[in-house]
Write a structure and sequence with these properties.
globular, 21% helix, outer membrane lipoprotein receptor (LolB), chain A, alpha+beta, single chain, 13-stranded antiparallel sheet, 6 helices, 295 residues
C-alpha cells in the first residue's frame, strides 16, 4: 500500500427500533447534534430503505463502546490528532499526520504526509467532498469515502456511537456471503455485526462495514471497510485487524493495526502521540484560500 492509499483510507438518522435500548446510549449525542443532522438531510435523501436494526446487534455495539471507555468519556471530546506510521515489507516506513473531527456530529478528516513524486501530500475530506492536495498546492476532487468508514479505523468508539443517531446506519448480526472471503477463520469468541450506512456517494447508496467483536473482551477485533476514494469509483474492501488497544485518558483506542487488501497484501499501522481535543479549527479542513478544486 502506498502513501496515496494510506492517506485515503485513514479519514458519524435515529435508531428505527428498540428505542429503549438504543437511545439509552445514543440520545445525548442525538440531542447535541440534531440540528447538524437535520441540516445535512440531503445526504441521505437518495438512500435506500434499510432493514431495521437487530436489538441483539445493537447490544453488541453498545457493549463495545462501553469497553472502550463508555459514551460519557467519548462524548466529552470531539476531535483528535495522531501520528501514523505505515510499515510494508520491502518499503521504507511512511509517516502521516492524522486529524479527525466529529465535534459537530459530522466527520471531517485530514491526512498530511511527505509526498513522493506525483503522490498527494494531503487528503482532506468531509461529508460533502473529498480532495487530494498535490505538491503544487492545487486540490483535486476525488470520489467520496463515507465519514463513518474513515473514522472507524482509528476511532471505532465514536464511529459506532454516531453511526445510528446521526448517519442513519443500521446493525444486523452476521455478515453477507460476499464478505466471507475477506475474513480470517472465525472462532467461538467472535460476534459478527454488519453495519449499513446510507451514503449517496456509494453504489446502491449504501456503505457496508462488517465488524467482528470479541465476546470475552467486548472490543472490536476486525472491521472490513468499503474504500472508494482513490479507486476509480470502485469499492474495494480493506480488512482491518485491531492488534492492540491502549488506554489513553480513560479511553481505549487501537494503536497497532494490520490492514489487508482483498489481494492479500498486508501492511502494519502504528498510531502514536494521540491528542484529544474538543474540536479542531475549521481552517484545518479548508482546501485553500482562493484555490478552486479541479474535478
Amino acid at each position: 500500500m502506498n502513501l496515496m492509499r494510506l492517506l485515503a483510507i485513514l479519514m458519524f438518522r435515529p435508531l428505527s427500533i428498540a428505542p429503549a435500548v438504543g437511545l439509552l446510549l445514543f440520545s445525548p449525542v442525538l440531542s447535541a447534534f440534531q440540528s447538524t443532522a437535520n441540516s445535512s438531510s440531503v445526504l441521505t435523501a437518495a438512500a435506500p430503505k434499510l432493514k431495521q436494526s437487530d436489538p441483539n446487534a445493537v447490544a453488541v455495539v453498545q457493549a463495545a463502546v462501553s469497553a472502550m471507555g463508555g459514551p460519557g468519556a467519548w462524548r466529552s471530546i470531539g476531535a483528535a490528532t495522531a501520528q501514523l506510521t505505515l510499515t510494508s515489507k520491502g518499503m521504507p516506513d511512511q509517516h502521516v499526520d492524522a486529524m479527525d473531527d466529529w465535534s459537530t456530529g459530522r466527520t471531517r478528516f485530514r491526512r498530511d504526509g511527505g509526498a513522493r513524486g506525483s503522490s498527494p501530500r494531503s487528503v482532506i475530506g468531509s461529508d460533502e467532498k473529498q480532495a487530494r492536495i498535490y505538491p503544487n498546492g492545487r486540490p483535486h476532487l476525488v470520489q467520496h469515502d463515507s465519514g463513518i468508514v474513515v473514522l472507524a479505523m482509528l476511532y471505532p468508539a465514536p464511529a459506532l456511537m454516531l453511526s445510528s443517531p446521526i448517519y442513519g446506519c443500521t446493525f444486523l448480526l452476521g455478515a453477507p456471503l460476499s464478505a466471507l472471503e475477506l475474513d480470517t477463520p472465525q472462532n467461538p469468541d467472535d460476534v459478527v455485526v454488519t453495519e449499513d450506512c446510507p451514503d449517496p456517494f456509494y453504489p446502491n447508496a449504501n456503505a457496508e462495514l462488517i465488524w467482528t467483536f470479541s465476546q470475552s473482551t467486548r472490543l472490536p477485533k476486525t472491521v472490513t471497510l468499503p474504500m472508494i476514494g482513490l479507486t476509480h469509483n470502485i469499492v474495494r474492501p480493506e480488512f482491518v485487524s485491531f492488534e492492540r488497544f491502549q488506554s489513553f485518558q480513560a479511553r481505549l483506542l487501537p494503536v497497532e493495526l494490520t490492514v489487508r487488501q482483498a489481494s492479500g497484501r498486508s501492511e502494519s499501522l502504528t498510531v502514536a502521540n494521540t491528542n484529544f481535543v474538543e474540536k479542531l479549527p475549521d481552517s484545518t479542513f479548508l482546501l485553500g484560500i482562493n484555490e478552486k478544486a479541479q474535478q
